[in-house]
Amino acid sequence: MVLAVLLSLSSLAAGAAIEKRAVPAGYVAPPAYPAPHGGWVPEWSDSFQKAAQVVAGLTLAEKTNLTAGSGIFMGRCVGNTGSALRVGIPQLCLQDGPLGVRNTDHNTAFPAGITIGATFDKDLMRRRGEALGEEFRGKGVNVYLGPSVGPLGRKPLGGRNWEGFGADPVLQAYGAALTVEGVQSKGVIATIKHWIGNEQEKYRMYSIIQDGISSNIDDRTLHELYAWPFAEAVRSGVGSAMVAYNAVNGSACSQNAYLINNILKDELGFQGFVMSDWLAQISGVPSALAGLDMSMPGDIHTVPLVTAQSYWMYEYSRSILNGSVPVDRLDDSVTRILAAWYQMGQDKDYPPPNFSANSQDAEGPLYPGAEPGSPRGVINEFVDVQGDHAVVAKEVARDAITLLKNVNGTLPLSRSATLKVFGTDAEKNPDGINSCADQGCNKGTLGMGWGSGSARYPYMDSPIDGFKSRGANYSFYNSDSFPSNSNPSANDVAIVFVTADSGENYITVEGNNGDRDSSKLNLWHNGDKLVKDVAAKYSNVVVVVHTVGPILMEQWIDLPSVKAVLFAHLPGQEAGDSLMQVLYGDVSPSGHLPYTVPKSEDDYPKSVSLVSDVVLVQPQDTFTDGLYVDYRHFNKEGITPRYAFGYGLSYTTFSFSDATITPVTALTTTPPSRPAKGKTPTYSTNIPAASEAYWPDNFNAVFRYKYSFLAKNDADAAAKVGNSTKKYPYPAGYSNVQTAGVAAGGAQGGNPALFNTAYDISVTVKNTGKTAGKAVAQLYVQFPTGISFDTPIIQLRDFEKTKELAAGESQVVKLRVTRKDLSVWDVVSQNWVVPNVSGDYGIWIGDASDSLKLRCGTKAATCVGGQTSPV
Ligand SMILES: *[C@@H]1O[C@H](CO)[C@@H](O)[C@H](O)[C@H]1NC(C)=O
Ligand SMILES: *[C@@H]1O[C@H](CO)[C@@H](O)[C@H](O)[C@H]1NC(C)=O
Ligand SMILES: *[C@@H]1O[C@H](CO)[C@@H](O)[C@H](O)[C@H]1NC(C)=O
Ligand SMILES: *[C@@H]1O[C@H](CO)[C@@H](O)[C@H](O)[C@H]1NC(C)=O
Ligand SMILES: *[C@@H]1O[C@H](CO)[C@@H](O)[C@H](O)[C@H]1NC(C)=O
Ligand SMILES: *[C@@H]1O[C@H](CO)[C@@H](O)[C@H](O)[C@H]1NC(C)=O
Ligand SMILES: *[C@@H]1O[C@H](CO)[C@@H](O)[C@H](O)[C@H]1NC(C)=O
Ligand SMILES: CC(=O)N[C@H]1CO[C@H](CO)[C@@H](O)[C@@H]1O
Questions:
Q1: Beta bridge partners of 813
Q2: Average of per-residue pLDDT across 302-324
Q3: Which of 143, 374, 530, 744 has an alpha carbon within 20 to 30 A of 27's alpha carbon?
Q4: What ligand 1 atom has the least distance to the C-alpha of 248?
Q5: Where in the sequence is the signal peptide annotated (predicted)?
Q6: How confident is the model at residue 725, as a pLDDT?
Q7: Exposure string (b/e) for 729-743, b if CB count within 10 Å is 16 or more?
Q8: In b/e form, how buried is each residue of 133-157, taking b as 16+ CB within 10 angstroms?
Q9: CA-to-CA distance for 389 and 186, rounded, in angstroms?
Q10: Could you tell me where in the chain the CATH 2.60.40.10 domains are found?
Q11: Nearest 5°: phi and psi at 784?
Q12: How far is the CA of 763 from the centre of ligand 3 (A)?
């Protein structure tokens, strides 16, 4: 991210003025003040009490020290807050990324978010989270910078979709909530990110020359799609949230009061702390008033590294003394941060960091950002945190593998098959598995995308390793061009490995600036040609795809010799044996697509194309597609995709039968009224003494390090302003009176009645084939006809994976729909409403979004099989 800023600085045209391009008419970023105090839900009240007691005894400089990072590269972790050691509060270590501890060693490189999404397995989602939690804790990380659910996956070319769980809010929600629960069960604070609308990489950041892209999102779409997974993460008690780089409705997410104060902290009842993405903060006072609680990494966004400048730290101390930020706003931020720390039990025996995100050396500069001249010391203890996590990592990689085509039982392979293996993706990067920083290249087996969401591989179990250890009879042609010497013979099975990659914007890979702006939806490295060339010479071709998201397969998918196709997604370090277990039939594949695979890029609405070619003005990205993202769009427009969302074959077959639907909580048009907010800590409104921020005598300051102290003169001058008659000159629309809260709120995630089960559904899943396998029961809701809200034809609301069922074996799977699942967000009443309480909702069950043959109706409370799928 730093690099991006420096690059834009170097291309700064002298004297160029920033032209404002107005957001389209109607999109507004309304004021929303004050920031709600945290601590009002019962689950957090003990932690808030403990935190408030500590905060009451802190000096001003200690408080502001805890709300910001000490600067980029100013400690072992990617983010390091200031401390208050006088009262035993250490610096907090914040570290990327969603799939493993980034930039270190002896860690597990887990399968990416998109891969766990493809398992549709809630138990695995949680167990992967627990393993991640153990690793972050083992390295001494206080705050895990994941999971990511923004981007949602609106743009198929978006660079970071693979960090999240799939292009559907409910799939994202389960991925997020279960990851949060798993990670936090180990005492690590999880971070739900990026709030919100960060759907493309290009133009995401504010710089000297250009404002970050504005995602213009209407209120209903925000609630029903983009905020949905955040709400579920909050409901799981997530301890922190990260705001996105971009703007929403023209206002930067880091200081968008409506988004942070009104929606996240009030309506969704978020009790933890809100941090900025790295260098996303663009102002001091406005971001504080808008509800930001922590500035990361502490630098100003325009010239990091160059100076000790910060929007907060000493400036925050100043703005408290001069009365520009009310004292209770700072107190609330610090209390939220410490409450999260207590909530996870980090006050007891939490290890300090024992790795360096900046260096692989054992010793080196303690503060690389202060070089030359940083004090030196031990920076890496090389602690092995892998435990037995390779087991769950491999299970995820294996159970995500999605079989899309399998003609005539080509798969599983027979043990004696003669294999010809093509494509560089089958074997490790010859330059070294970690030779590209942050995996910023696509060379060798693709186990993850690039950027801050990456981790180093401790090893890479490649597909070739897998073939070797199986004793397969194979020849490998380590090239992405078809070789002339492969000597095809009729019984050979050719296995072709192909990829599509993407990542974060600060690295460009093969012309792709994070987003797949150059490759588009095509395979990389002329993969289409390789598949076609192989298919021209071999009659049994299996294609294995490692991909960040949807690709175009039209050039070869229907070729008669392309017999089988598998998406292995992004398997992390466990790419080899996980695939072998599926290829050779130790297990049946059980992954399902976490997005739609189109036939053409034109299948998508124009509005989800990447915004490009914007110079100096704020790029505008207006979400006119509304609710119609991914399969919701294809269904609405009647476009048949190549493979539908939720699709995935097995080596066996399943039936879904004997479904039941049981009303649990009777519906009403609007939910019962919310519980009142509980008591929150009370804070003094008196501006503290200027002396609380004075530099201590003889303080040994680190060069460029961000401190919260002010020179005596500066502090006194600010205090003089604060003590003037003009108290609190806050912005227009500002109020410092805490509110009772909006109707749609009331608990973590929103009004608790929203999550009441409306109907329990059960279905018998039977393995009707000859081999063992796991099925995924997917539940989609169809709203009743005749309602006054336009709704997508079907929407995923629940899913459950069966255990491995032997041939002939059955399992009764339990699913449910909540009040929220049957509601729409009414922008007028600002509440979730059930559009017709006595309406006949269709609750459709099947194993793909386009294969739903079992319908339960809410009106008659009966279920009928053998139906025509609604899409
Ligand atoms: C964005 O503008 C739309 C249209 O006026 C409005 O409904 C929505 O609430 C706004 N969202 C935010 C986060 O300000
Ligand atoms: C702020 O944190 C830094 C880093 O731990 C520390 O050196 C400094 O003394 C702290 N300031 C206060 C006021 O405690
Ligand atoms: C108070 O200090 C902050 C931080 O330096 C500054 O942005 C703001 O303008 C100051 N307010 C007044 C009234 O001087
Ligand atoms: C499947 O196998 C049958 C019998 O061997 C053969 O007739 C048929 O052409 C095969 N189908 C395809 C698509 O290869
Ligand atoms: C591998 O397969 C080829 C072609 O079927 C065969 O000639 C050769 O003997 C096999 N090698 C082994 C070690 O089985
Ligand atoms: C604030 O101002 C009042 C009167 O203007 C003065 O009496 C008082 O000493 C001042 N307090 C501080 C802390 O400067
Ligand atoms: C609500 O659903 C019931 C039952 O299907 C139907 O009779 C009624 O007309 C619907 N009301 C509206 C306003 O659509
Ligand atoms: C398990 C282990 O070795 N933990 C170490 C991590 O590093 C800190 C120093 O920062 C040590 O105190 C821990 O013992």
A1: 763
A2: 92
A3: 744
A4: 13
A5: 1-15
A6: 66
A7: ebeeeeeeeeeebbb
A8: bbbbbbbbbbbbbbbbbbbbbbbbb
A9: 14
A10: 655-673+750-864
A11: -65, 155
A12: 62
pLDDT recorded at residue 17: 40
CB atoms near residue 822 (< 10 Å): 24
pLDDT of 312:
98
Token code pair at residue 764 = 């018998």
* Cα angle 28, 34, 36; round to 5: 110
29 pocket-lining for ligand 1 (C-beta < 6 Å): yes
Does domain 655-673+750-864 sit in CATH 2.60.40.10?
yes
HSE, side-chain direction, 13 A CA sphere, residue 83? 11
Which tokens go with 278?
């790295």
Which class is domain 43-383+687-722? alpha beta
211 is catalytic: no
Residues 6+ apart with CB under 8 A from 201: 158, 159, 160, 504, 505, 513, 514, 515
- The residue with tokens 């699942």 is 821
DSSP letters along 506-538, please?
TS-BTTB-SSSTTTTTSPSTTHHHHHHHHHHH-
Ligand 3: nearest atom to the Cα of 316: 4
Q: Where in the chain is the domain with CATH 3.40.50.1700?
A: 401-620
CA nearest ligand 5 atom 5, residue: 418
The number of the ligand nearest the C-alpha atom of 706 reads 2
Distance 342 CA to ligand 2 centre (A): 20
Rounded CA gap, 775 and 656, in Å?
10
Best CATH choice for the domain 401-620 from the list 3.30.530.20, 3.50.50.60, 3.40.50.300, 3.40.50.1700: 3.40.50.1700
CATH 3.20.20.300 in the chain is located at 43-383+687-722
Q: Classify 469 as helix, strand or coil.
A: helix
User: pLDDT tens across 8-46, in order?
Assistant: 333 333 333 444 568 999 999 999 999 999 999 999 999
- Collapse the DSSP code of 564 into the 3-class scheme (helix H, G, I; strand E, B; otherwise coil) and give the result: strand
pLDDT tens digits along 587-629 = 999 999 999 999 999 999 999 999 998 888 999 999 999 999 9
CA distance 687 to 287: 19
Answer whether 27 contacts ligand 1 (Cβ < 6 A).
yes
Which ligand 5 atom is the nearest neighbour of the CA of 418?
2
Average pLDDT, the chain: 96
pLDDT tens by residue, 710-738: 999 999 999 999 998 666 667 777 888 99
